[in-house]
Amino acid sequence: MRPLLANLVIANTLLQLPLAVAVIRKRLWRSLPIFAAYSLMNALEAGVLYLMGKALPMSLGYIYAFYLFEGIGVVLGFGVVYEVFGEILKPYDALKRVAAHASRWVLGGLIVLGLVVLVAQPSADKRPLASALLVTQEVARIVEVGLLAFLFLFSRAFGLHWRQNIFGIALGLGVFTGVELAALALRATLGPMANESFNLARALSFNISLLIWLGYILAPERITSSAELPQRAQLEQWNQAIMELINQ
Asked: For residue 177, which of 140, 214, 230 has the smallest C-alpha distance?
């Protein structure tokens, strides 16, 4: 498994470069600033950890740098989920308000669910820092996967189509967070003995996500077809009706 994991890490590092270039060339920081920051941060993480791993393998500095990047990635991952929601509903201010309220309830429920899972599933890792990071990651991934599932469940109602670039960003994040959540649950149960399986699943899923993001970003932006115009009109009607209720 170690040679396979090493190859996946190299592939991860190599895929980060064209993705970062695509993000910069497409100027995604204008329309999707959090996703752009998330992508560039991942590219920076891959480069820094690769160089540190060569110079100072498994040193204290390497470990703290890894934990720092992971923490930033968790925060930015949340931001990407909300950015996707905001981008989809940007033309519909009233629907955006309703979705924001609904997502807060969903978020609260998912946080409670995450805490329940946390209490019911004690960590098998005896190292305090590693255990705390794994616990934080697991709760965060439960919330992210739940919010993305909510998004995909109501994708047709939101006018989200699989050929849209924003769908690809959500899909790539969903693949990575979904697989990592399952791997984190396994890692928390089995402890350090599952490290190789955890790292392999994580690296493979993230490489798949990088390919999805790269493919969707490089693909030409899809133009709304005439078949979807009635759906857009329905969204506008809902938005107008909600706006009237808010203004009453």
From this structure: 140
Count the neighbouring beta carbons within 10 Å of the beta carbon of residue 36: 20
pLDDT lower than 50: segments of the chain: 225-230
Domains and CATH numbers, the chain: 2-247 (1.20.1070)
- Output the CA torsion 240→231→221→243 (10° steps): 10
| CA 38/CA 16 separation, integer angstroms | 11
Please tell me the distance from the alpha carbon of residue 173 to that of residue 161, in angstroms, as a whole number.
16
Q: What is the number of alpha carbons within 13 Å of residue 199 lying toward its C-beta?
A: 15
Mean pLDDT, the chain, whole residue set: 77
Residue 183 token pair: 């791997």
CA distance 95 to 92: 5
State pTM to two decimals: 0.78
- For residues 29, 32, 37, 42, the Cα torsion angle rounded to the nearest 10 degrees is -120
Closest CA to 168 of 216, 219, 220: 216
φ, ψ dihedrals at 91, nearest 5°: -75, -10
